[in-house]
């Protein structure tokens, strides 16, 4: 999960379009996508929401 999340964040750094988003949103989205890809359920927990201040719909 950790390595996949880091990889996804690195991919965002190479995309010019991703620069308009906050780094915290990109990181949270990377964690969410990694959890979805690895079929970890639930993909977004209340604990993740609490620590990131992002709801699942914002990602």
TrEMBL record:
Coiled coil: none annotated. Gene3D superfamilies: Cyclin-like. Residues 1-59 form the Cyclin C-terminal domain. SUPFAM superfamilies: Cyclin-like. Pfam families: Cyclin_C (PF02984). This is Cyclin C-terminal domain-containing protein.
């Amino acid at each position: 999960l950790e390595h996949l999340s880091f990889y996804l964040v690195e991919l965002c750094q190479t995309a010019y379009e991703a620069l308009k988003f906050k780094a915290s949103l990109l990181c949270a989205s990377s964690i969410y996508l990694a959890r979805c890809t690895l079929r970890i359920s639930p993909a977004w927990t209340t604990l993740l929401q609490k620590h990131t201040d992002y709801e699942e719909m914002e990602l």
